[in-house]
Design goal:
This protein folds into 2 domains: 86 residues, Immunoglobulin-like; 212 residues. The protein contains no helices and 24 strands. It starts with a strand and ends with a strand.
Length: 331
């Protein structure tokens, strides 16, 4: 019985002559009154962060999920403590985060989680608008918080940079025109234990992926470093049913790949709805083109021989103004 592997289909409705992606504050909807599900992967995969023109997170396995409700600060039970913020994120179990979105910035004001209360004396400028590739910013922060009866004085600095724009591959499909933001948050916490002064330095290395039309980052990857040693990592992403701007299929459907009878090759099969010339590119793991071929298509079933010796990670099929990226299985 021959093995038939159904490909992950990622449709990319990319127009020729693509312009630079720029995201303003108004491109990210104000989220109050919304609900969404946040999926978590804990610990985050122990792999290098993907680079190139395709960022592949399609193989993520969810550890748990959490419903998030966004309300105005005035509606929250802690409005008196975070009166300068405008947004309250309720994570359940008495856990809250507070923020504010302005024309120029997305600001964090702290929150309450279990036995910890964090109050930002100076809000943290988490994002600075407009967001576009190459943009950098820096912000200092001051805060106080208490945990298990110990009071902490925190000072720190956040460095942000938009390091790229590309296509994000997720378990639910693909999203194009995504900006990738790298944040380095360095925190110094001063406290006392039995009269002795102590200082702990923590660095949070954060990668977040932002798409216009979505109030929240589609995915956030955090690595926590204490005294230059990683102690934890976690990844969270918005459930696909709440994501705006996911890609849909072009004039093709029913993709599959089948190993040849002699097991030395493979065939790509799909249903075509148009007649013309199709470009097929073999891409490596960074989305870089290895080989390009041209195919003549016609309506009906198309069968294309695949060169498995190229060890490509993806196939990209492109017509005049649309393209589809397929994740190649391994035989």
């Amino acid at each position: 019985m021959r093995a038939l592997l159904i490909l992950f289909l990622f449709a990319l409705l990319s127009l020729c002559g693509r312009t630079q992606v720029v995201i303003t504050s108004s491109d990210l909807p104000t989220p109050e009154g919304s609900n969404y599900v946040l999926n978590s992967v804990i610990p985050a995969p122990d792999v290098a962060l993907p680079f190139g023109t395709i960022w592949d997170f399609s193989g993520l396995v969810i550890s748990k999920n959490q419903g998030v409700t966004v309300m105005t600060t005035e509606e929250s039970p802690l409005r008196e403590h975070f009166s300068e913020s405008t947004l309250c994120y309720s994570l359940g179990g008495g856990n809250y985060l507070f923020a504010k979105k302005t024309e120029k910035s997305f600001l964090k004001y702290g929150g309450v989680a279990k036995t910890t209360e964090l109050f930002m004396n100076d809000p943290e400028e988490y994002l600075r608008f407009p967001l576009k590739k190459g943009q950098e910013w820096m912000d200092s922060l001051q805060s106080t918080f208490s945990s298990q009866g110990i009071r902490f004085e925190r000072s720190g600095r956040l460095k942000g940079k938009v390091i790229g724009e590309a296509t994000l591959l997720m378990p639910y499909g693909s999203v194009q025109n995504v900006l990738r933001i790298s944040l380095e948050e360095t925190l110094s916490d001063a406290y006392e234990v039995m009269g002795a002064a102590m200082v702990q330095t923590t660095t949070n290395l954060i990668e977040c992926f932002v798409k216009a039309g979505n109030a929240e980052p589609l995915l956030t990857w955090t690595r926590v470093m204490v005294n230059d040693k990683q102690i934890s990592s976690y990844l969270s992403f918005v459930d696909g049913s709440y994501v705006e701007g996911k890609d849909s299929e072009g004039p093709w459907n029913s993709f599959s790949i089948e190993q040849s009878a002699d097991q030395n090759g493979a065939r790509l099969e799909f249903i075509s709805e148009w007649r013309g010339v199709l470009t097929m590119e073999y891409l490596d793991q960074d989305g870089i083109t290895i080989v390009t071929e041209e195919l003549k298509t016609k309506p009906g079933l198309m069968v294309v021989n695949i060169d498995v010796t190229l060890e490509s990670r993806y196939l990209r099929l492109t017509s005049e103004n649309q393209s589809i990226v397929l994740l190649c299985p391994k035989f």
